[in-house]
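User: Hey, my collaborator sent me this sequence without any context and asked if I could get a structure. I don't really work with proteins. Can you help?
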Amino acid sequence: MSTVAKRVVVRGRVTGVGFRYATLSEALRYPGLKGYVRNADPGTVECVLQGPEEAVEALVTWLRLGPPGAFVTEHTVSEERVNSAIEGFRIGR
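Assistant: No problem. I've predicted the 3D structure and written it out in structure-token form, which is a compact way to encode the shape of the chain:
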């Protein structure tokens, strides 16, 4: 199974609506998925994901809409280098 890493930046009504906590909950559904989610610029959430390709792609797809109450207006995905220092999935600062 191939390990991949991606950075996802979502913009819109994504802060103050439980987006990070919902992302954490969703990420924990996928064994082997690692990374973090954090608020970035105003109205922006950033996610770094790494793990099995199927798990990463599933969360990338979920992030296009996010949880109920969120309104994603922009969804940008870029490739990242796998970072072996990342353990588990967490909410970052």
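In plain terms: Strands lie at 3-13, 34-39, 44-52, 71-79, 89-91. You can pass these tokens on to your collaborator as they are.
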